[in-house]
Amino acid sequence: MSTMTLERAVMMFAGAMTLLSAALAASVSPWWLLLTAFVGLNQVQSSVTGFCPAAIVMRRAGLQPACAVQSAPLAR
Q1: Which of 46, 41, 49 is nearest to 58 (CA)?
Q2: Segment holding 11, helix H or strand E
Q3: Distance between CA 29 and CA 22 in Å, rounded?
Q4: Chain-centre distance of CA 74, in angstroms?
Q5: How confident is the model over 31-74, as pLDDT tens digits?
Q6: What is the rounded distance in angstroms from the CA atom of residue 5 to the CA atom of residue 41?
Q7: Are residues 74 and 50 in contact, defined by beta-carbon separation less than 8 angstroms?
Q8: Angle of helix 53-60 relative to helix 33-49, nearest 10 degrees?
């Protein structure tokens, strides 16, 4: 079994938030689609700038990045 890396945890978190907001939009209120939009915009922003608030929090929590990302300047 492979260990959980920072990148995998960020992708899992984004996917879980997207699924949760879609379920809440279907069952509670369509306003929950704003959370889906926020998650999507954050993913686009992160891919362009390299800055991801969730990754910062998860790294402080002890998750380690994969080897290829350790040298990236904005991953620190």
Answers
A1: 46
A2: helix 6-27
A3: 10
A4: 15
A5: 999 999 999 999 999 999 989 999 999 999 988 888 754 455 55
A6: 22
A7: yes
A8: 80
